[in-house]
Design goal:
By secondary structure, the protein is α/β, with parallel strands linked by helices. It has 14 helices and 14 strands.
């Protein structure tokens, strides 16, 4: 019996994509709920990895792929990348039918280069599905909307009931739908099992290149230690060398690319705004996993451990906030970046909408850091060239605290336990 379906922000994103495209591809890491969400919309389903039929499905794909597309629409094709020819078959079927919402494809890995003949542009819409946010797992009350912050229609007032202990658990459990509502020991064990599968199986299977599990684990441990930083390959190589055998930067880059293709890592790109004066902006991305629980699991950090190591807790908390902001921003047609210049002025996150509006965010767990963070955001605002860019829609300090409000200087102080899309 399936667990009760918890509504996802991706539901609305999928609906909009199906209205405008003949097919929609839902990509994302294993276990994030892609298939379950697609099942809610589908009228017929093809499970390409069903062990009873997988071999015959692959033969059909090699012989006449259009046979696998027959069924009521929208038709879900789960883990389509096991037979990449289905991509071109779907694209062709969409062209012939000339109707929207015909197919939903799901995939937890990007297929090898040149596996498909056409990009699918104009026929197949892509959407990235990430693990659940705190709002989706019912741990944020959603009293403050990111959209309302952009529209200027909220005072930011809210009260979070999410404690520091609750944050530590939510972070280490992760936004994996099957673990929400489970007892703590089961949920934490599942994340460790997920990481072990990535290290021992998935990262080699994605491109067919055998990789050393010890080296993959060492790399993931280094990425976890450097989470929410701009650590370059040289830094990561030196960090790995402290507890593993030597590994070249070229090998590290290839391993990271494999992890990216199975949606385990998702770095945060740098933002390059128009500035009032010549300012050297750092262009390196910040290191992040698709979910902070992966970092916690590879470091073998339990909730109690975070409560005794607030430095690590703070970095992982920033990563959790980035995860949630990415999901919320995606729902309102936006993207998330980070900003840092040569003088050390930074914003942990910048949410930029396609219409040009933007808002800057500093992430701080402790209330004693709020004042410095607010001043930092105001300094950044004053450096932006508003003749070439819009004024920020908001400046926000995203916290692990309880009280949400707007300061007299206009800076919002918002608990992550109050935020939603």
């Amino acid at each position: 019996m399936k667990n009760k379906y918890l509504c996802r922000i991706a539901d609305k994103v999928l609906d909009a994509a199906m209205e405008s495209s003949g097919a929609v591809l839902i990509e994302g890491p294993k276990w994030c709920g892609k298939t379950r969400t697609a099942e809610e919309k589908a009228k017929s389903i093809l499970y390409m990895q069903d062990p009873d039929y997988a071999a015959s499905y692959l033969k059909a794909a090699d012989t006449k792929p259009s046979l696998l597309l027959k069924g009521d629409t929208p038709r879900l094709i789960d883990e389509w990348q096991t037979a990449p020819v289905l991509w071109d078959a779907v694209r062709f079927a969409v062209d012939k039918r000339g109707e929207s919402g015909q197919f939903i494809l799901t995939g937890s890995a990007v297929p090898v280069d040149n596996a498909v003949a056409h990009t699918g542009t104009g026929r197949i819409s892509r959407m990235l599905m990430r693990p659940m946010t705190l709002f989706e797992s019912l741990e944020s009350n959603g009293s403050v909307s990111l959209k309302d912050l952009f529209d200027g229609t909220t005072d930011g007032e809210g009260m979070s009931s999410l404690t520091i202990e609750g944050l530590a658990y939510a972070l280490t459990r992760g936004g994996w739908p099957a673990s929400v509502g489970e007892k703590e020991s089961v949920a934490l064990r599942r994340v460790c099992d997920y990481v072990d599968a990535v290290i021992n199986i998935d990262v080699s299977r994605v491109d067919g290149v055998e990789k050393s599990p010890a080296r993959v684990r060492g790399l993931m441990r280094s990425l976890a230690r450097n989470i929410s930083t701009m650590a370059n390959l040289s830094t990561i190589r030196g960090d790995i060398a402290s507890d593993e055998e030597s590994i070249s930067e070229k090998t590290i880059a290839s391993y990271i690319n494999a992890l990216r293709r199975i949606f385990v890592v998702e770095d945060l790109p740098a933002w390059s705004p128009a500035m009032r004066s010549k300012t050297t902006i750092r262009t390196s991305p910040k290191r992040h996993f698709i979910d902070p629980s992966i970092a916690a699991a590879v470091l073998r950090v339990a909730p109690d451990g975070l409560l005794h190591d607030f430095n690590t807790f703070g970095l992982l908390f920033e990563s959790l906030c980035v995860r949630d902001l990415r999901v919320y921003a995606h729902a309102i047609d936006g993207e998330v970046f980070h900003y840092r210049d040569k003088n050390g002025l930074e914003a942990d996150a910048v949410v930029h909408l396609k219409d040009g509006r933007w808002g800057a965010v500093e992430v701080k767990m402790c209330t004693k850091e709020i004042e410095a963070a607010a001043e930092n955001l105001k300094t950044l605002r004053n450096k932006i060239n508003v003749d070439k860019m819009k004024e920020p829609s908001f400046l926000m300090v995203l916290t692990g605290g309880e009280l949400g409000y707007r300061r007299k200087d206009g800076v919002y102080i918002i608990p992550i336990g109050c935020l939603r899309e």
